[in-house]
Amino acid sequence: MNQTLAIIKPDATASGAAGKIIAHLESAGFRVRALRMLTMSSAQARSFYDVHRDRPFFESLVAFMTSGPCIPIALEAPDAVGELRRAIGATDPAEAAAGTVRRLYAESKERNAIHGSDSDDNARREIGFFFAESELLR
Length: 138
Ligand code: UDP
Ligand code: MG
Known about the structure:
Number of strands: 4
Shape: globular
Strand order of the largest sheet: 2-3-1-4
Strand content: 15-25%
Number of helices: 7
Radius of gyration: 14 Å
Helix content: 40-55%
Bound molecules: uridine-5'-diphosphate, magnesium ion
Order of helices and strands: EHHEHHEHHEH
Largest sheet: 4 strands, antiparallel
Distance between the termini: 11 Å
């Protein structure tokens, strides 16, 4: 078993898709180990996406991610990182495979419903960004 971080993004909480996305992930075999709802500050969004700070979409991404509540979720499954990336689909929903979360619920390449960690190292960092060790249930 290993762990990864999903974030249901502000477009999906605003459209009322959050519950459906959580159900989708549970049906795909993930166990929820921690979950919270918050509106990220600009400093939090900048820090979370620091790897993208020099990309042309960075300021727009920060504005989007701070525009409303998001739901970080620590998830556990065998090969959690790879399985979540498969379950969410390509960054651009137009390119995401049928049945993936982004294909089902995303609006655009920016407003794409959900985040998924891209490696075990980043999953550890990103889970720690939102949750204390004592908040991860087993
Ligand atoms: N993003 C964007 N425009 C782009 C690429 C990415 O607005 O051309 C946003 C989008 O919300 C994406 C996030 O920035 O989910 C992080 O980008 P990344 O390349 O890490 O995509 P992901 O890992 O989320 O598929
Ligand atoms: Mg990424």
